[in-house]
Structure formats: C-alpha cells, structure tokens
Specification:
single chain
C-alpha cells in the first residue's frame, strides 16, 4: 500500500473513530471494552478495503458504520454460542461520554441492553445515527419492510421496559 493511501486511511480513521466508538457503545449497551474491540475490528476491515476497493465506495463513513453493525451482529452470534459472562469488572459501567443526566443514560442503556441484538441495531441506526429506513435495511442486510417491523416492535418493547420511568426524568 502506498504512502498516500496509508496516510488517507489514517486521516479517515482519526476522523471516524470517535463516531464509530459512540455507536459501538450504544450497540453494546455501554460495554466500552467490547465497543473498543468492535471499532478495532471495523477499522481493520476498512484498512483491508482501503487499498483495493475504497475508490468504488461512494461514502466510506457510511460504509464503516455498516461494517460496524455487521461486526457487532457477527460478534453477538459467536458470543451467544460459546462465551458465558462471569461477572462485572470494575469500571465496566463507565460511559463513552459524560451525559447531562447520568440516571437517564443508565436507564436507557439498560433498556437497550435488554433488546435483542438486531432490535438494538435497528434502534441505534434509525434513531441515534438518524439513518433512513433504506440505509438501515442495507446496513443490516434486511428488507425495508423488515426494518419498519423491527423498529415498531423494538420501540414497543422499549416503552414496555421503561413504562412510566421516563416521566420522572422529564421533570428534572
């Protein structure tokens, strides 16, 4: 890989890492260690593409988000079949960025964490990343109708989980 391509990738990675990390933190329900691993895997895959196909990709930033979601979903499939958690490590609940209301952040991350991985990915892409239904469908390799259905069901589950607890945060 030529020096200019390497420099181009470094500039891309420096500009996108923070955004990818925030998205990964949401996908992992605040597990910052796993989020770092997902971002590293995403950037590794992007690096491989950078030398060969990056010129054919219209929007490398959006493509990186798609890679991140797919890496996350692949990790969830592997994790569910082989690894079992043994407990919380100290500091595992640290947030990616300081929030204006830590109690609200913890409540929302907990509710997101109880969603199925694909439901969580749809909510993050549609409402955090502000992607269209079509962009979300492409990133997750689903049809637009499946994204709409999954969004509706995921939001319904979030409302059930949060119940009236959001009302107490709105008063602050």
């Amino acid at each position: 890989m030529g020096r200019s391509r390497t420099d181009g990738f470094r500039a891309f990675a420096a500009a996108r890492t923070g955004h990818l990390y925030r998205s990964a933190c949401l996908l992992t329900s605040g597990d910052t260690h796993l989020a770092e691993d997902l971002v590293q895997e995403t950037l590794g895959r992007m690096y491989v593409l950078w030398g060969r196909r990056i010129g054919r990709i219209d929007n490398p930033a959006a493509y990186a988000q798609t890679v991140l979601v797919r890496v996350y979903l692949t990790h969830r499939r592997r994790y569910s079949s082989s690894e079992r958690p043994h407990g919380e490590l100290p500091g595992a609940d640290t947030a990616a960025a300081p929030a204006a209301d830590p109690a609200l952040r913890i409540t929302l991350l907990d509710a997101l964490g109880r969603l199925a991985p694909k439901d969580r990915a749809v909510v993050v892409l549609r409402y955090w990343e502000d992607r269209s239904i079509e962009e979300t469908a492409q990133a997750m390799n689903l049809s637009s109708a499946a994204v709409r259905t999954r969004c509706s069901r995921a939001l319904s589950r979030l409302r059930e989980q949060l119940g009236g607890s959001l009302g107490e945060f709105a008063l602050r």
